[in-house]
Amino acid sequence: MQALFELDSVGHQPEQTIARQFGRFPPSTEVKEFAQELVTGVLAHKEQIDKTIENTAPAFPIDQLPVIDRNILRLAIYEVLIDNRVPMRAAINEAVELAKDFGGEKSPRFINGVLGSVSVLTTR
């Protein structure tokens, strides 16, 4: 999530951003590979993910969302709709917890609402 936030707000190169994040807290090889796959996957599917956000939260234009909320949603939607390794409930719970820790006062409720709408799309 931190790498996605940096990429979205500053526009650094993905490889440099990911390496910088790992430099702070060197992870295990498994964690590093998983994180790289998530960042790469979100970036590769960003257009599709952003359209999903726009469709499930039409009153909130994607470019006007707080950067942290936008990237929490991108990560969770990638995990739920595209990657499918993490159970939907777990991805939503993780996203809400990230919103509590890093977002604004209304972020957890907003993130939960959007992801609740996305979960309805996946069950059709």
Structural class: mainly alpha
The CATH architecture designation of one domain is Orthogonal Bundle
Strand share of the residues?
Answer: under 5%
Using the CA coordinates, give the radius of gyration: 14 Å
| Apparent shape | globular
CATH topology of one domain: N-utilizing Substance Protein B Homolog, Chain A
CATH superfamily of one domain: NusB-like
For the termini, the CA-CA separation is 28 Å
CATH level-1 class of one domain: Mainly Alpha
Largest sheet: none
The residue-averaged pLDDT reads 90
Write a brief caption for the model.
This protein has 124 residues and is mainly α.
Topology:
Elements: H1 2-9, H2 14-24, H3 29-44, H4 46-56, H5 67-83, H6 88-102, H7 107-122
Question: Would you write up a description of this structure?
Answer:
The protein is an all-alpha fold and 124 residues long. It has a domain at 37-122: N-utilizing Substance Protein B Homolog, Chain A, CATH 1.10.940. 76% of the residues lie in helices and 0% in strands. It has helices spanning 2-9, 14-24, 29-44, 46-56, 67-83, 88-102, 107-122. The longest helix has 17 residues, at 67-83.
